[in-house]
Amino acid sequence: MTRAVPIAVAVLASVAMAGWLLLTPPDAPPPEQAPDPGPSAFTPRAGIVDDARIMSAAADEPGAWIAYGRTYEQHRHASLTAVDRETVADLGIAWVKPLDTIHRLQATPLVVDGVMYVTDPMSVVYALDAASGEEIWRFDPEINGQLVRFSCCGGPMNRGVAVYGGRVFIGTFDARLVAVDAASGEKLWDVNTNYAPHEFSYTISGAPLVAAGKVYIGNSSSEFGGATTAGHRGYLSAYDAATGELAWRFFTVPGNPAEPFEHPELEEAAKTWKGEWWKMGGGGTVWNSIVYDPELHTVYIGTGNGAPWPRAIRSPGGGDNLFLSSIVAVDPDTGEMKWYYQTTPGDNWDFAATQHMVLDEIELHGERRKVLMQAPKNGFFYVIDRENGELLNAFAFGALNWATHVDLETGRPVEDPAAYYEDNPQWILPGNSGAHTWHPMSWDPARRLVFIPTQELALFYALPQEFTETGVYKARFNTWNLGLERGQRHADLVAASDDPEGPPRQGFLKAFDPVTGEMRWSVRNTVPYAGGLLSTATGLVFQGDSAGVLSAYDSDTGERLWNLDAYGSIGAPPVTYEVDGEQYLAVLVGAHWSHETTGRVVALRLGGAPAFPEPPVRDRTLPKPPPLTASPEQVAEGNVHYHLYCGACHGGQARGGLIADLRRMTRETHDAFLAIVLGGAYRDRGMASFDDVLDVTAAQRVHDYVIARANADWEAQEAGTAQ
Ligand code: CA
């Protein structure tokens, strides 16, 4: 088999067209078998995927990773058998494809017909030969770098594509949905998913879902509810997969009740809100999990947290605030709601329910039930009847103090009033990072075990001083608008509390039986931030971590059987696939904090190279900064601006965060500071202009603050007293 790309592209373009016409219409029964694309002596079939093929892939195509969670059921559990508990010791590096990025990598690669489709954080799609890593094509949607400002949590990100009908679908960080020819990488259509003209945009970080002839996509950015324009409301959009035409939209929270509701469910939802919630948007964005249930012809979405976070500000007087933090079932043909289950009524903590959802049928309380399972941020694991939304089981899967348990009669969590932070600022577990967030779990149906990447990262919650003293919250436009105290005053409150350190920050990989709630085993991760999961029928669970180590654990015991130091940061979930009889594993590895590396796709196979050569160690020495010439008052002013607009990405105290450590700026960067911060000189690299919120004087004060911090830490380094 050759993989001569130029010839393949020409042939595949026509095959892709033919495959499109063979798509199953949404209402037709699935065909007995997937349509035969004809002889294909030297090329893969380039993503001629339809509903029937995805539905049968779990059984018929063990070597494909055909949809985000491998199949529609999202098990992320592989039936390939070459890599098992014995052979895993021989797993080594097959190939590496550099992605040349320092931003975080989160994508799940799809592998269909020997081609891997994968994305980088700037929403660039790569088609790679899955056996060699050789690039077949690349599609750059050229996102508007200015919108990287509206990242929830430090820079751009993307979790992957969907493949269907000879097309690849990508939700871009600047909130477009784009269809690309799977064979050639050529753009076929490109639509803006913003529901109304805004002074700022939604973003997209999640992978689209394709099923029943439509592409489904939500949005991110509910941390940016506006103050001078309509804020961020959540919604799911469904587009015709062939034409890109909008079919319907389901909003997850009601808008201004003085205007007509977009659909009848919102009229009911509005009764659960108080005050003028629509002015700041309300939140509930559908930023991650969108799942199709072929058996019940239903799309399930997980909805995000409230915006702003505290209910006292968002909906004064209470209410459940539907449909925040919920799992909602909608009809793929019409967008009408079938049922909902709200995990966290009246969300007060950024407890999104956007996490990975798994579909299966299990025996529960003596009955066979069609279930949907989710471990959302709030720390409870839910088993829900996917026919009607009935709560069947709920148990805590991590340390939590905001609620005592879930009442199975009412289906509601029982909050602990001692953990109300409105009058008593305090640490809450889990914090806004959640007991489990976007990192996918996996489900081993034979062992009846769900494996969950969990974390214990508390947050100290405090209402803003302006609100507690005046009852008025002055939301800020075009920056984080959480409704919580931040910056220096937050640090002061924590320092003055009776627990300045807070609970230990740690992470665990856990195996649970969702029927009994029994924790079968738990492994403490060496670093608190660990990645998404892959499990296998041969009894292995694979997980990477933020220190760059990829490990394989025994599914029955949690014993670590193998590991590889990839010198990077692994948050993305691994996948496995087969090409020409060879089983591969692949995972995205991001830049490393301690070594000179950038992002890449790493593929492994049995008998591959056993280790990466150690890259050069990153020089952690602070360079000598320019002298500080500003007054203490100017530095203090810069401190406030810095923590409002810069700290989310560049780290508290300017000590570096998810991206560039500003204490290490070169002389050239210092000279260009205003051109970058106000002029947008680095926009294409993801550093947007802030000229709408900072004037020249304020930007200079930020610069003063960074120089002051750099000098303080440099002097401590030179004196040998650095922390
Ligand atoms: Ca959030």
Keywords:
four-stranded antiparallel sheet; Cytochrome Bc1 Complex, Chain D, domain 2; 723 residues; five-stranded mixed sheet; single chain; 11 helices; 15% helix; disordered N terminus
Describe the structure.
With 723 residues, the protein is an alpha+beta fold. The protein has eleven helices and 39 strands. The strands form eleven sheets. A five-stranded mixed beta sheet has the order 1-33-34-35-36, with no helix packed on it. Strands 2-39-38-37 form a four-stranded antiparallel beta sheet, with no helix packed on it. Mean pLDDT is 90; it is low at 1-44. Calcium ion (CA) binds next to loops.
Could you give a short description of this structure?
This protein is α+β, with helices and mostly antiparallel strands and 723 residues long.
